[in-house]
Design a protein that fits this description.
The complex is a heterotrimer of chains A (about 300), B (about 400) and C (about 260). With about 300 residues, chain A is mainly α. Chain A is about 75% helix and about 5% strand. In chain A, the strands form 2 sheets. Chain A has a two-stranded antiparallel ribbon with strand order 1-4. Chain A has a two-stranded antiparallel sheet with strand order 2-3. Chain C has about 260 residues and is α/β, with parallel strands linked by helices. In chain C, helix 5 crosses helix 7.
Chain lengths: ~300, ~400, ~260
């Protein structure tokens, strides 16, 4: 195989995996709560900041961990913290919009995103400035002409495992059955002695923790993090979930791979592609929605009469 | 509710016409003075006190709905007087601003946002169409007129209608997908449209890229350049007064459009498809056409605001027309009160001035606005002034 | 006589499920036809196809000899078919008057340009519509008329149905389809409903009603003819007195065993 092509394919998969980790959260939250959690990108992007703080804390407390070990611990801490943050935000803000028109929840979570970004900017030491983020792995494997960064393999592997774990959780565990029950019909689920609010909390924890991993990968890939990175990552993740079909896990993956594909193609094939990547990504979004109004794998909305 | 209305109109008759005049004059002058003191005070304590006063007035109106009904009835019966007095206040207001460029600037920006919010209100308020691209229409209007003026020397007055037509065409284009998509999916289409427009403005050479367009010439009217101060009755108003009057005229125009459309078959059709699109179809309403119409009207008015903005600041860049601008406009409509013209204008003024006046906490401004918006949506989702029922002939 | 509304071989499939299968119906001018049948038989689905909400998989719908099959709902409404909904879909955040005025949408003309540039004309048209709406509501119920400037969302169930009928009448339709108009009504309300239908038919020659009903009191008294739908097929049609005795109809309603004993 052409080495360059292989390299591009690898990059595509890495990008697609990162987008998937964000899009999954959007899709899961919409499927279960029927709400668009627009600040999901910003919530996720808080993870790298938690991780950075955790690395410092680990160093300060002289825990006998350095380098990769400390980073790994920090990432786990950030996952838990962001998962809890998601639950907290649901409890504080989002649950108040369960019965409200979809537009209200959308605008409220847009504002919530601003609040999260501003909190990071004002509370984190020198929060306005970009912060270097350590690489998770710097080693590379050479397969002939192809250079495979270990980091890429980690991203792809973790994403695949996350997807498998999510599918297993939803389809083969009692919690998963309850989540699906609540997603299907909240009122009936309540009759079955399921407490929807608990299920919502669990869903928020999962979605946010998965998003945290995506954000950490994203900034580790870029080598740097800034308080407002969550806006664009969130928009792309949201778009991926929507064009795939909100509420469908497979759709979120498909949408992410599509968007990552356009992203890569434009940067490779279009002159000055890096500047125009967002144009093409969002034209793709418009195009897909014009042709498939409920996303590619979304169930067409059947009007109840 | 009918009882209240009847009781109120009985009250109106008993109190006679002079009471009506007093109420109208009191409300209009009072609001003008309140706004004036808010604009010109720069001490935090005073600003907070004024905010508390406004909150108190609002609370009083909430606790005594009859009071609000009484005021509404007075304005309704004294429509001509109210309009005339309002026009006079707007006309002489600049003379009381002590030549403060900052106060002028705040007023102009507030008025332009009021126009944008009224434009969006046709969609979000009247028809419940989520449009996150009003900022883009605003930008298309601004860039169209600025490019015409810079490259072809077209006069400001001619660029106004041209920009409106161009933006309306784009509005219909954006409305096209609404034929099939709706709700969150339609919201994403508009978000995507806004981002595409912003990115293209940011990348094309002929739009000046990220640096935007510089040196947009000031408009002229009968030989008077808008870059020059107005001198009248021995007073000298700063050059911004030109744009103050221009923006005020546009707000007036927007209010007339809003009223006329709201009280027409079109406004009713929009309301119908907000309440129940399927039932609306079964009443013979072509839902797709009316949705696209709402996109067109929104873009038309937004382009006017964009043109005035471009000529006012004489420098535009893509960052004036981002997704966040669209969200801000949307917030103004929601906070003010959907489908309530006055509410939407107040929402625009409130959300434009509040962060500016709270510069003392400059670092926490955005944070503060975000929290205010969330609290509003939780505590008062219908907005400051919820929509009011239409009145047909009988109340006049 | 050519029928006013003619439905031929109307069929719709949702995925593998055939919800309505080859139904034929003919509605003459100045006629009331009741459609009865067990819950889930496909009666409302039939209405949804005639009014253009669903596109039929096969078959045709003709109004006054004109083929309107597959037209969008708003064009069918404009062509003269008005309807109510089983779950009474009013515009809840608008006043009763507004609701009925919207029913006149296809009989009024003002567009955006009229509203903006000729406000007097647009306003006059709407005022006239509002006056007519007021009269329509008054004719249905003086009670409702007294509340005409309140929001529709606050009405009790029976009044919601009445208002929906007023809205359907407002369009000057030639065919009015009522989907279970008497549900949520007591006997007195139902009597008033029947009186309204008769009054309107006397006032508007040629107007016909297609009514889905469960209340056998109404079905026995009001319609000229009855059609029975079961499992998506028309199983009987004719005078109610005859139809009710047909074994197939009794089976559909009571189940096979019970029908044998009946």
């Amino acid at each position: 195989m052409d080495a360059l092509l292989a390299q591009h394919l690898l990059n595509w998969l890495v990008l697609g995996s990162i987008y998937t980790l964000i899009a999954l959260g959007f899709s899961l939250l919409f499927g279960v709560l029927d709400v668009i959690h627009f600040s999901h990108g910003d919530v996720s992007m808080a993870a790298p900041f938690v991780a950075l703080a955790a690395i410092q804390a680990v160093a300060a407390w002289a825990v006998p961990l350095t380098g990769t070990g400390a980073l790994l611990l920090a990432i786990l801490i950030s996952m838990a913290a962001i998962g809890l943050l998601g639950v907290l935000l649901d409890w504080l803000v989002i649950r108040r919009f369960r019965a409200a028109p979809a537009m209200m929840a959308l605008v409220a979570t847009v504002a919530l995103g601003t609040v999260i970004r501003e909190l990071i900017r004002t509370l984190y030491p020198q929060g306005s400035n970009p912060k270097p983020f350590p690489a998770i792995a710097t080693d590379v494997i050479r397969l002939g002409d192809i250079v495979v960064p270990v980091f890429s393999l980690i991203v792809i592997a973790v994403s695949v495992l996350t997807v498998i774990a999510l599918f297993a959780l939803l389809n083969h565990t009692p919690v998963g059955v309850r989540i699906r029950a609540v997603a299907e019909d909240r009122a009936v689920a309540r009759l079955m002695a399921i407490r929807p609010n608990r299920i919502f909390a669990v869903t928020f924890f999962i979605a946010s923790a998965v998003g945290a991993v995506g954000a950490v990968f994203f900034v580790s890939h870029a080598g740097v993090v800034r308080f407002d990175y969550g806006v664009q990552l969130g928009l792309i993740g949201f778009s991926a979930a929507v064009i795939g079909g909100l509420g469908s896990m497979q759709g979120a993956i498909l949408g992410s791979l599509l968007i990552a594909g356009i992203d890569m193609l434009v940067q490779i094939a279009v002159p000055d592609g890096a500047s125009y990547r967002l144009v093409f990504i969002f034209l793709l979004v418009i195009g897909v929605l014009v042709l498939k109004p409920s996303g590619i794998l979304g169930k067409p909305v059947f009007e109840k009469v | 509710m009918a009882d209240t209305a009847q009781a109120t109109s009985a009250l109106v008759r008993r109190n006679g016409p002079s009471a009506d005049l007093a109420i109208v004059a009191g409300v209009e002058l009072g609001s003008a003075i309140l706004l004036w003191s808010f604009l010109l005070s720069d001490r935090t304590a005073v600003i907070v006190a004024l905010l508390a006063l406004m909150g108190g007035i609002f609370a009083a109106l909430q606790l005594r709905p009859a009071l609000e009904e009484r005021i509404v009835a007075a304005f309704h019966d004294r429509k001509r007087f109210a309009t005339l007095l309002g026009a006079v206040i707007v006309l002489i207001y600049p003379f009381f601003l002590q030549g403060s460029g900052y106060a002028f600037h705040l007023l102009i920006v507030s008025m332009l946002y009021a126009v944008l919010a009224l434009a969006l209100n046709f969609q979000l308020g009247s028809a419940n169409i989520p449009n996150f691209a009003t900022g883009a229409s605003y930008g298309i209007g601004a860039y169209t007129s600025a490019l015409l003026a810079l490259n072809f020397g077209v006069s400001f007055w001619l660029t106004l209608p041209v920009a409106a037509v161009v933006a309306t065409a784009f509005g219909f284009l954006l409305g096209f997908p609404s034929m099939r998509t709706k709700e969150s999916y339609l919201a994403l289409v508009t978000i995507a449209f806004g981002i595409v427009v912003h990115q293209l403005l940011n990348n094309f050479d002929w739009t000046g890229g990220p640096n935007g367009l510089v040196g947009i010439p000031a408009p002229e009217l009968f030989g008077h350049s808008f870059a020059r101060p107005i001198e009248a009755f021995g007073f000298r108003l700063p050059s911004q007064a030109n744009f103050y009057y221009l923006s005020a005229a546009l707000v007036g125009l927007s209010i007339v459009c809003a009223k006329r459309l709201h009280e027409s078959r079109v406004g009713l059709a929009w309301n119908a498809l907000r309440a129940d699109p399927l039932a609306a179809r079964c009443q013979g309403i072509d839902v797709v056409w009316f949705k696209m119409l709402a996109f067109g009207v929104d873009a038309f008015l937004a382009a006017f605001a964009g043109t005035i903005y471009a000529f006012y600041v004489s420098y535009i860049s893509p960052d004036n027309f981002t997704f966040l601008v669209s969200v801000t406009i949307m917030t103004m409509v929601i906070v003010g009160g959907m489908d309530n013209t006055l509410g939407v204008i107040i929402g625009a003024f409130f959300l434009t001035m509040l962060p500016e006046k709270l510069r003392i906490f400059s670092d926490y401004r955005l944070l503060f606005v975000g929290v205010v918006v969330i609290l509003f949506l939780i505590l008062r989702p219908q907005g400051l002034f919820p929509q009011r029922a239409r009145n047909y002939g009988e109340h006049r | 006589m050519t029928p006013l509304l003619e439905v031929r071989g109307l069929t719709i499939r949702f995925g593998g499920l055939v919800a309505v299968c080859e139904v034929d119906l003919a509605l003459n001018p100045s006629e009331v036809l009741c459609i009865i049948g067990p819950n889930g038989a496909g009666k409302s689905t039939l209405f949804n196809m005639i009014s253009g909400i669903y596109r039929p998989s096969a078959g045709t719908v003709h109004l006054d000899g004109r083929d309107i099959t597959g037209w969008p709902a708003h064009r069918i409404a404009a062509a003269g078919i008005a309807r109510t909904f089983q779950s009474s879909r009013l515009f809840n955040d608008l006043t009763l008057i507004d609701n009925v005025v919207i029913g006149m949408h296809s009989r009024t003309k003002s567009g955006v340009l009229d509203a903006l540039l000729r406000p007097g004309k647009a306003r006059a048209e709407l005022e006239a519509a509002a006056e007519k709406a007021g009269e329509l509501i008054r004719a249905i119920s003086p009670d409702l008329h007294a509340r005409r400037n309140t929001l529709a969302g606050a009405l009790p169930q029976a009044d919601r149905r009445r208002l929906e009928i007023a809205r359907a009448l407002a369009s000057d339709a030639r065919v009015i389809m009522l989907d279970e108009p008497s549900s949520g009504m007591d006997d007195r309300d139902t009597d008033a409903l029947m009186a309204d239908v008769r009054r309107v038919m006397a006032e508007r020659p040629g107007l016909s009603f297609l009514i889905i009903e469960h209340d056998m009191r109404l079905v026995a008294a009001l319609p000229d003819r009855v059609a029975v739908i079961d499992y998506g097929r028309k199983i009987a049609e004719g005078d109610f007195a005859d139809v009710r005795l047909m074994p197939r109809v009794q089976e559909a309603y009571l189940g096979q065993k019970a029908a044998e004993h009946a």
